[in-house]
From TrEMBL:
This is Nuclear transport factor 2 family protein. Pfam families: DUF4440 (PF14534). SUPFAM superfamilies: NTF2-like (SSF54427). InterPro entries: DUF4440, NTF2-like_dom_sf. It comes from the Bacteria. Residues 10-117 form the DUF4440 domain.
Length: 126
Protein backbone atom coordinates (compact mmCIF):
# COMPACT_ATOMS: atom_id res chain seq x y z
CA UNK A 1 0.00 0.00 0.00
CA UNK A 2 1.26 3.44 -0.94
CA UNK A 3 -0.63 5.56 1.55
CA UNK A 4 -2.79 6.89 -1.30
CA UNK A 5 -6.02 4.85 -1.01
CA UNK A 6 -7.72 6.57 -3.95
CA UNK A 7 -4.74 5.94 -6.23
CA UNK A 8 -4.49 2.32 -5.11
CA UNK A 9 -8.17 1.74 -5.80
CA UNK A 10 -8.02 3.38 -9.24
CA UNK A 11 -5.25 0.89 -10.10
CA UNK A 12 -7.26 -1.96 -8.56
CA UNK A 13 -10.24 -0.97 -10.73
CA UNK A 14 -8.10 -1.04 -13.86
CA UNK A 15 -6.85 -4.49 -12.81
CA UNK A 16 -10.44 -5.58 -12.12
CA UNK A 17 -11.50 -4.48 -15.61
CA UNK A 18 -8.58 -6.45 -17.07
CA UNK A 19 -9.75 -9.54 -15.10
CA UNK A 20 -13.19 -9.21 -16.72
CA UNK A 21 -11.79 -8.78 -20.23
CA UNK A 22 -9.30 -11.65 -19.84
CA UNK A 23 -11.72 -13.84 -17.84
CA UNK A 24 -9.01 -14.39 -15.24
CA UNK A 25 -10.69 -16.21 -12.32
CA UNK A 26 -7.68 -15.83 -10.01
CA UNK A 27 -7.46 -12.05 -10.48
CA UNK A 28 -11.27 -11.82 -10.37
CA UNK A 29 -11.32 -13.59 -6.99
CA UNK A 30 -8.52 -11.43 -5.58
CA UNK A 31 -10.21 -8.16 -6.64
CA UNK A 32 -13.81 -8.96 -5.63
CA UNK A 33 -14.91 -9.30 -2.01
CA UNK A 34 -16.82 -12.49 -1.10
CA UNK A 35 -20.02 -10.44 -0.71
CA UNK A 36 -19.56 -8.64 -4.07
CA UNK A 37 -22.69 -7.75 -6.04
CA UNK A 38 -23.11 -6.11 -9.44
CA UNK A 39 -26.25 -4.21 -10.36
CA UNK A 40 -26.04 -4.25 -14.15
CA UNK A 41 -27.70 -1.77 -16.55
CA UNK A 42 -30.81 -3.97 -16.85
CA UNK A 43 -31.32 -3.78 -13.08
CA UNK A 44 -30.38 -7.42 -12.47
CA UNK A 45 -28.19 -8.06 -9.43
CA UNK A 46 -25.48 -10.72 -9.72
CA UNK A 47 -23.44 -12.13 -6.86
CA UNK A 48 -19.71 -12.69 -7.17
CA UNK A 49 -20.25 -16.37 -7.97
CA UNK A 50 -23.03 -15.72 -10.49
CA UNK A 51 -21.00 -13.08 -12.33
CA UNK A 52 -17.91 -15.29 -12.49
CA UNK A 53 -20.02 -18.19 -13.79
CA UNK A 54 -21.48 -15.95 -16.52
CA UNK A 55 -17.97 -14.88 -17.51
CA UNK A 56 -16.35 -18.33 -17.47
CA UNK A 57 -19.21 -19.95 -19.44
CA UNK A 58 -19.16 -17.14 -22.01
CA UNK A 59 -22.74 -16.09 -21.30
CA UNK A 60 -21.24 -12.64 -20.66
CA UNK A 61 -18.19 -11.82 -22.79
CA UNK A 62 -16.72 -8.32 -22.81
CA UNK A 63 -15.25 -7.34 -26.17
CA UNK A 64 -14.11 -4.01 -24.73
CA UNK A 65 -14.52 -1.99 -21.56
CA UNK A 66 -12.79 1.36 -21.95
CA UNK A 67 -12.58 4.19 -19.43
CA UNK A 68 -13.75 7.44 -21.02
CA UNK A 69 -13.14 9.59 -17.97
CA UNK A 70 -10.66 9.54 -15.14
CA UNK A 71 -12.21 7.85 -12.12
CA UNK A 72 -13.35 10.25 -9.41
CA UNK A 73 -12.56 8.78 -6.02
CA UNK A 74 -13.84 9.62 -2.55
CA UNK A 75 -11.89 7.95 0.23
CA UNK A 76 -12.86 7.33 3.85
CA UNK A 77 -11.58 5.04 6.58
CA UNK A 78 -11.18 1.67 4.85
CA UNK A 79 -13.51 2.52 1.97
CA UNK A 80 -13.14 4.18 -1.42
CA UNK A 81 -15.96 4.97 -3.84
CA UNK A 82 -15.17 5.40 -7.55
CA UNK A 83 -17.25 6.84 -10.35
CA UNK A 84 -16.30 6.99 -14.01
CA UNK A 85 -17.72 6.94 -17.50
CA UNK A 86 -16.88 4.04 -19.80
CA UNK A 87 -17.68 2.49 -23.17
CA UNK A 88 -18.69 -1.16 -23.23
CA UNK A 89 -19.02 -3.76 -25.97
CA UNK A 90 -20.34 -7.05 -24.66
CA UNK A 91 -21.99 -10.26 -25.77
CA UNK A 92 -24.77 -11.52 -23.49
CA UNK A 93 -26.29 -14.95 -24.11
CA UNK A 94 -24.97 -14.93 -27.68
CA UNK A 95 -26.34 -11.49 -28.51
CA UNK A 96 -23.81 -8.80 -29.40
CA UNK A 97 -24.61 -5.56 -27.64
CA UNK A 98 -22.95 -2.74 -29.58
CA UNK A 99 -20.66 -0.16 -28.04
CA UNK A 100 -22.55 1.98 -25.57
CA UNK A 101 -21.64 4.30 -22.74
CA UNK A 102 -22.33 3.81 -19.05
CA UNK A 103 -21.54 5.33 -15.69
CA UNK A 104 -19.88 2.97 -13.26
CA UNK A 105 -19.91 3.36 -9.49
CA UNK A 106 -17.76 0.96 -7.50
CA UNK A 107 -17.27 0.62 -3.76
CA UNK A 108 -13.99 -0.82 -2.50
CA UNK A 109 -13.13 -1.89 1.03
CA UNK A 110 -9.71 -2.60 2.46
CA UNK A 111 -8.83 -5.70 4.36
CA UNK A 112 -6.06 -8.21 4.86
CA UNK A 113 -6.03 -8.93 1.12
CA UNK A 114 -5.76 -5.30 0.00
CA UNK A 115 -8.52 -3.39 -1.74
CA UNK A 116 -11.46 -5.43 -3.00
CA UNK A 117 -14.60 -4.33 -4.82
CA UNK A 118 -17.74 -5.03 -2.81
CA UNK A 119 -20.43 -3.35 -4.94
CA UNK A 120 -20.66 -2.19 -8.54
CA UNK A 121 -23.42 -0.45 -10.40
CA UNK A 122 -23.47 0.25 -14.12
CA UNK A 123 -26.01 2.73 -15.46
CA UNK A 124 -26.48 3.06 -19.21
CA UNK A 125 -26.24 6.54 -20.71
CA UNK A 126 -29.01 7.26 -23.19
Amino acid sequence: MTGDPAGEVVQAEKDRIRSLLDVDPEAYDRLHAPEYELCNPTGAVWTKAQYLDLLTTGQVAYRSLELLSDPVAVAGEGVVVLRYRCAIEVTVDGTDIPRHEAWHTDVYVSGGNGWRCVWSQATGIV
